[in-house]
């Protein structure tokens, strides 16, 4: 599985290629799926370009993408989109159009309550376990650990020369994922080393403009689809390496 992460917290300031509007996100999803992505992750945006959990924005965004691609679509529930845990729960409970799955950062306050609200509504939960946080320890004792859709091992080390070691440390901290699938990915300059490690280990991964704006050569990526194409090539080459 290769998930495309279309935009993340990035916006217009990061370049014209970062999709923000529902239409642009749908266009980017179509191209990324054609390039080989089998799952979509995105951050719905307000007209001003801010991440939001607004039911109205979520509905318009999901409907635009679902009309054009057949793969599962997931969204963020990151605390930056709604810092107050109670307000975050209320947003989720009033969603009128549901994503197939949503990521929940396990180190954030209220993570288990958010995950429970999603599960109660039939939305799959991606348990986001960030390196350098207490996420792995909290997930290890969570009563929800066997109920999530998958575990996201999210390597926040942005350095190319240390990201692989950080990824291995995170995987060690995670240990037993209680039979749940594991998706491993990095960010910024650590994106490509961690993606190649995922290939060598046979783990699911993700790639897209949320994680990096650059190709492995250091050139600026022109689209999510270009990153997916290159990501699949790098992943498959890593699978064949000793």
From TrEMBL:
It comes from the Bacteria. GO terms for molecular function: 3-keto-5-aminohexanoate cleavage activity. Pfam families: BKACE. InterPro entries: Aldolase_TIM (IPR013785), BKACE (IPR008567). Coiled coil: none annotated. This is 3-keto-5-aminohexanoate cleavage protein. It comes from Streptomyces sp. R08.
């Amino acid at each position: 599985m290769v998930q495309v992460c279309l935009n993340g917290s990035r916006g217009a300031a990061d370049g014209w290629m970062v999709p923000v509007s529902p239409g642009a996100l749908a266009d980017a999803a179509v191209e990324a799926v054609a390039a080989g992505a089998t799952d979509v992750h995105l951050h719905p945006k307000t007209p001003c370009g801010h991440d939001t959990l607004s039911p109205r924005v979520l509905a318009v965004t999901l409907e635009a993408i679902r009309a054009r691609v057949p793969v599962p679509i997931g969204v963020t529930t990151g605390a930056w989109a709604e810092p107050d845990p109670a307000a975050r729960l209320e947003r989720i409970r009033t969603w009128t159009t549901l994503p197939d799955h949503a990521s929940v950062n396990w180190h954030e306050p209220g993570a288990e309550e958010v995950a429970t609200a999603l599960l109660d509504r039939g939305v799959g939960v991606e348990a986001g376990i960030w390196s350098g946080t207490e996420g792995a320890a909290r997930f290890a004792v969570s009563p929800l650990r066997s109920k999530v859709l998958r575990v996201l091992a999210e390597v926040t080390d942005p350095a190319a020369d240390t990201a692989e070691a950080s990824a291995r440390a995170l995987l060690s901290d995670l240990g037993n994922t209680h039979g749940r699938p594991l998706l491993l990915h990095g960010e910024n300059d650590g994106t490509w080393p961690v993606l190649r490690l995922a290939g060598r280990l046979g783990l699911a991964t993700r790639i897209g403009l949320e994680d990096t704006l650059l190709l492995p050569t250091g050139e600026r990526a022109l689209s999510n689809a270009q990153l997916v194409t290159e990501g699949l090539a790098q992943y498959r080459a890593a699978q064949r390496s000793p």
